[in-house]
Amino acid sequence: MPDARPPEAASAPSDDWGQVLAALPLESPPEGGWQRVAQRLPARRSPARVWVPAALAASLALLLLVPWKTQPPTTQVNPGVASSSQHDQHVERAPPPTVSAPPATVDATDATQVAVAATETGERDVAASLPEPSVDAATQPRRSTTPHLLADTHKAATVTAPVASTDKKAATSPSQEDLYAESARLEALLAQIRDDRVSSGTAMALSAELHDRLGGIDAALSQPELEAGERLGLWRERVATLQRLTGVESTQRWMAANGYRADGQVAQIY
Amino acid sequence: MPPVSSFAIDVPDTLLARARAGRQDAYEQIYRWFERPVFTLALRICGDREEAADVLQDTMLKLFHHIGEFRGGSPFWGWLRQIAVNEALMRLRRNRRFDMEIAVDEEDLPQDHGSLPPAAADAALLQRALAALPAATRSVLWLYHAEGYTHDEIARLMQRTPSFSKSQLARGTRRLRTLLQIEEPSHA
Q1: Of A139, B12, B98, B132, which sees the most CB atoms within 10 A?
Q2: Is A70 inside a domain boundary?
């Protein structure tokens, strides 16, 4: 009888069955399984969707508030200094100073609607950097309301601060530790909100450009002989770039989640 | 030494984090890693390639829908395997094949303690013999021997008793021996 067998002897055959069964070759499923699954994957049904509106609101509030709080009293840019900076600062200086002007065609009564305007104008930034930036008058006040442009204004103001008022800058500039923390926070936020599946062409181009810029900054930061002031400046630039990138990515997600078209069409990328 | 499940693949935390963030490339990577273990398990339980493909698809969709709920207290592969087993067994129940096959109570059957038949080393013969078993019996046999589930765990999964699991295991082993044309050992 089996019960009469010693336990060690009784267990051996079972293990043998297990080994031969487990050693059977794995079966291969039919081709195209992943494509079928990918088609049925929820575009926005991941748990992340629950907090996306909150993340959007938080990031947009940050983008709106931080530059405003750290801006010098006047955003007048010293032409002499600005002309020596990168070409995109030409675009950054383009918005008129009336940052509170309402959008011409969008009722920006809440943060999400501002987000729509942000993307639209963000894409115009790309167009504006082209040789013939024909921007009509109606879009000008709208551009001035975009969070990332405000961030850029902050960056431009940072560039010109030594000329304008060093005392004011010292009073309002974040420390390097603040910049580290802010950079890490924005990186984490970006990792959560970024979604390559849905994006517009121009937004992707803008995003790629900003990533390139981040890469350049990181390369510069890796130089050991950097002066403390240079390092601080690079970290400021890094945070400003991350703020722009966060604005672009969060706006893309919000628009895709709500069925808005970005610049003609929203592309599903697999 | 207990057999190692084909699911036992360590998934890096970074990949899981990307999947939790909804990154499709991470989904695809996880799918590619586990499609064959899931399909094989489903095929062993359901016995039909088309059904197994459906189980694979449903398992992966359920996994990706709920991946944010995985907290990491146990291996990711174990969690995925549990989903796959549930999906396959649910399909058996839905098709009413399960209830018909387990109507026979063979609790009193003796456990199989004979040595392994030589023909069992032939993968093709063994697969053919497995395919000839009733679905419920084959499921118990596979979950117990190849995946290392205990009788208690199998009983919970199948909503039966541990005795049911033991009897199906004994029945399955005897049938396998017969199908492999090996005489059963004497239990006298």
Answers
A1: B98
A2: yes
Name the residue facing A24 among B113, B127, B173 (closest C-beta). Answer: B127
| Among the listed residues B62, B56, B61, the one whose alpha carbon sits nearest the alpha carbon of residue B41 | B56
The pLDDT tens digits for A9-50 are 334 455 688 888 888 999 999 999 999 999 988 665 444 454
Amino acid at A190: L
Clarify whether residues B82 and B110 are in a common domain: no
Q: How far is B102 from chain A (nearest CA, A)?
A: 22
Whether A123 maps to a domain, the answer reads yes
Measured between beta carbons, which residues in chain B are less than 8 angstroms from residue A37? 27, 31, 57, 60-61, 64
In a domain? residue A14 = no
The closest of A178, A107, A98 to A140, measured between CA atoms, is A98
The reply to whether residue A22 touches residue B65, judged by beta carbons under 8 angstroms, is no
In whole angstroms, what is the distance from residue A118 CA to residue A142 CA?
A: 9
Cα A115 from Cα A147, distance rounded (Å): 8
Task: Give every CB contact of residue B150 below 8 A, 6+ residues apart in sequence.
Answer: B144
CATH number, domain with residue B109: 1.10.10.10
Q: What are the pLDDT digits (tens) for A182-194? A: 777 777 777 777 6
User: What ipTM goes with this model?
Assistant: 0.84
Rounded to two decimals, the pTM is 0.48
**Cα–Cα distance for residue pair A121/A8, rounded to 1 Å:** 75
Helix/strand/coil for A101 = coil
Contact of B37 with B6, CB cutoff 8 Å: yes
Q: Containing domain of residue B60, as a range?
A: 13-95
DSSP B8: -
Rounded-to-integer distance, Cα B123 and Cα A69, Å: 72
Cβ neighbours of A94 (radius 10 Å)? 16
CATH number at residue B81: 1.10.1740.10
